[in-house]
Write a structure and sequence with these properties.
This is GGDEF-domain containing protein. Helices cover 51% and strands 15% of the residues. The protein has 537 residues and is of the alpha/beta class. Strands 8-9-11-12-13-14-15-16 form an eight-stranded mixed β-barrel. The chain has a five-stranded mixed sheet with strand order 2-3-1-6-7, with helices on both faces. The protein is elongated and about 135 Å long.
Length: 537
């Protein structure tokens, strides 16, 4: 009963009591009994006591009703729906965690293995049949697995009823069984491998639905309590990690490796070290000259960056730590730092009358944001440099994976007269289509494996074809990583002209670019540009 109805019910009872008492005293008065002060006082006291008793009785009645409502029990069907997955009718992850935790707390010294597994070839079913129909196949799989292990008393049961259910469903397509290793007299791995084999054998040869047939394949990840974690959540999470690692390494059964935790900690330490060095600008930039080998004219520079990790003697190049920078969230700041170095170097070159392009590599597709375009435009205006002297270099794979949003960003960069270069060009059909549509200004081919003898015929044939192709397309082709004379000779013999590599210079730091140019022009006076000021040669 609501509070509103209870109020009026109580008032109704009070009115009845007052009327009854009034009628009683009225009857006594008619019989000519004395109505003195004592009688009036008794009348009022009786009314007060009656009202109080009615109020207490009403409160007790309502509180009992509310208590009864709050303690209302749910049915067996409702309990089942709360604790079981609606698709497979298996216990949910929450139910499994609760039972697993209770088993470990029941007595000390208990050892359990959490086995997380999934069908590795099920994703295609959703796309072909839809989620509703694929759930029917998943129900068939769950039923077969449940029936196969129902009598294995080494496995925990996750059910409240008398019939054991020794398998639970986790998130996505993952399932869980928990094996009791406490009294195991044999090697743990041999017993767990046998369990995985038993589960694998439970899968029927083919599950069919609406003329669609699928042979399930299972992959397993295993973690043992005490060895791979102390809490239930940690053990199951580590078993899931082992499953993911096994899928990556194409292993059917994978055990959690504690060294992966140390590896993660090591990665976090590296990320923090790199983040700090980027923030403190402790990275080292250098310029790789690009030269026309026919007349020794300088046609541009590529800006590269090195990172000395923990003061190691061998530095890491951008391609070797760009993923780490992206994971640490500092790749965008690193890229802006490289652009700052490029603009400062362009100012130095223009001051001495050398007007050549500097290319900056964008290591990830995620860098293509409107903020980057605004930043570059702002720096062009701040340094008073035309966009045609800046070139942005993309790896071919980044280019091929580019979304429409990335292509729009590239169009915005080109509207600022910024040139676009493609590195590691392979000459594939997809690459050629992109080059034709996007009007690329420069291509680069890796010549590291080139030799001037009969070896590496395939690489030489591919490079030779690219030289011929780019010449017919009238797109400049730069041979990169030309670090030896035999590679240079082989590239020139094919008709290549533009060279970049250690054979020209291993890397000029921006602060010494003017000094290097002076030495280069002294060695090759025919390459001095007419705009160059006499002070540099």
């Amino acid at each position: 009963m609501s509070h509103f109805n209870a109020k009026y019910f109580f008032l109704f009872i009070v009115v009845i009591v007052v009327v009854a008492l009034s009628a009683l005293f009225s009857q006594l008065y008619r019989e000519q009994l004395p109505m003195g002060l004592m009688a009036m006082t008794g009348y009022i006291v009786a009314i007060i006591i009656a009202i109080t008793l009615v109020w207490l009785l009403t409160q007790k009645l309502f509180s009992a009703e509310t208590s009864h409502t709050g303690n209302e029990t749910i049915s067996v069907e409702e309990l089942f729906s709360y604790t079981h997955d609606p698709v497979t009718n298996l216990p949910t992850a929450q139910q499994a965690l609760k039972i697993f935790a209770s088993a470990i707390k029941a007595s000390t010294g208990q050892r359990y293995a959490a086995v997380v597994f999934k069908p590795i070839n099920f994703e295609q079913v959703n796309s072909l049949l839809g989620y509703h129909n694929s759930d029917i196949l998943l129900l068939q799989l769950a039923y077969c697995l449940r029936q196969k292990i129902v009598n294995n008393k080494k496995l925990l049961s996750f059910a409240h009823n008398l019939e054991p259910v020794r398998i639970a469903r986790l998130q996505s397509l993952q399932f869980l069984v928990v094996y009791n290793l406490t009294d195991n007299r044999f090697d743990d791995k041999s017993m767990l491998n046998e369990l995985c084999q038993q589960l694998g054998d439970a899968v029927p040869d083919a599950l069919s639905f609406k003329s669609f047939s699928l042979n399930f394949e299972l992959a397993f990840g295993i973690a043992i309590s005490g060895e791979h974690g102390n809490s239930v959540e940690e053990v199951i999470a580590h078993a899931g990690d082992a499953l993911l690692n096994g899928l990556q390494s194409q292993q059917v059964i994978s055990y959690f490796d504690n060294s992966s935790i140390l590896y993660t900690q090591s990665q976090l330490a590296r990320m923090e070290s790199l983040r700090q060095d980027i923030e403190d600008e402790k990275l080292f930039c250098y310029l790789k000259p690009q030269v026309n080998i026919n007349n020794y004219h300088i046609v541009g520079f590529q800006l590269n960056v090195h990172w000395y990790e923990r003061n190691d003697h061998k530095p890491l190049e951008l391609s070797e730590f760009s993923t780490l920078a992206e994971q640490s969230g500092e790749l965008y700041r690193l890229t802006k730092y490289m652009f700052e170095q490029a603009f400062t170097t362009l100012e130095t070159l223009h001051r001495i009358g050398v007007y050549q392009r500097i290319s900056v590599s964008l290591a990830s597709e995620n860098l293509f944001e409107v903020d980057l375009v605004d930043f570059i435009e702002q720096k062009l205006q701040q340094h008073g440099i035309a966009g045609k002297y800046l070139m942005i270099e993309l790896n071919e794979q980044v280019m091929l994976n580019a979304s429409q949003r990335v292509k729009n960003i590239i169009d915005q960069l080109k509207s600022l007269e910024i040139k676009i270069s493609i590195a590691n060009f392979s000459g594939s059909y997809e690459s050629l289509r992109y080059v034709r549509k996007m009007a690329i200004h420069q291509l680069k081919v890796d010549c590291q494996q080139l030799t001037n003898d009969s070896s590496n015929r395939v690489d030489k044939a591919i490079t030779n074809a690219l030289v011929t192709l780019t010449r017919s397309m009238k797109i400049p082709l730069v041979g990169t990583n030309i670090d030896r004379h035999d590679a240079s000779q082989a590239y020139i013999a094919m008709g290549g002209e533009l060279i970049q590599g250690d054979i020209i210079h291993s890397g000029v730091i921006p602060e010494e670019i003017e000094l290097w140019l002076e030495k280069w022009y002294l060695q090759h006076p025919e390459s001095i540009p007419p705009e160059a000021k006499p002070s540099i040669y």
